[in-house]
Amino acid sequence: QVLDGAGLDVDFHLLSPKGETLVFDERKSDGVHTVETEDGDYMFCFDNTFSTISEKVIFFELILDNMGEDGQDQEDWKKYVTGTDLLDMKLEDILESINNVKTRLSKSVQIQTLLRAFEARDRNIQESNFDRVNFWSMVNLGVMVVVSAVQVYMLKSLFEDKRKSRT
Fold it and tell me: Per the database record, which ranges form the GOLD domain (predicted)?
C-alpha cells in the first residue's frame, strides 16, 4: 500500500525462484496477493521509475502460512504426557483452544497493522490538503489586501480636487 507520495501509485513485480513473473501490477495504490510457493528465493520489487521526482512511502506485509513448524510443535507436547486417556483428551482440548486463540490473535494483529497503514495514508492526505488550503488562503488574503489598497487609492483619486486654486 502506498502511504504517501504524488499520485499514491507504484509498480509491483513478484518473481518466482525460476525467474517467472507471478504478479505484475502497474500504478496501483494497494493490493493483496496470495501465491502458492515452492522452495527457493522469491524477489519482489516496488518500482517508482515512472515518477522520479516524487518519492513514495510504502507499507507492505509478508505473511507466511503453513511453514510446517506448527505440526511439529503440536506433537512435541505429547511425549511428556503420561496418564489416562481422559488427561490426553483434556490436554488436546486445551491445546486446540490455545491454538484457536493464537490464530485469532495473529489475525487481529494483522488487521490492526493494515488499519494503521490505512490511517497513516489518510493522515498524510489530510495533512497535504491542510497545507494546500492554508497556502491558497494566504494567496487569497494577499490578493484581497492588494485589491482593497487599490480601491482606496482609486476612490481617493476620484474625490481629489484637481483644479488649481489661486490664493
Answer: 1-64
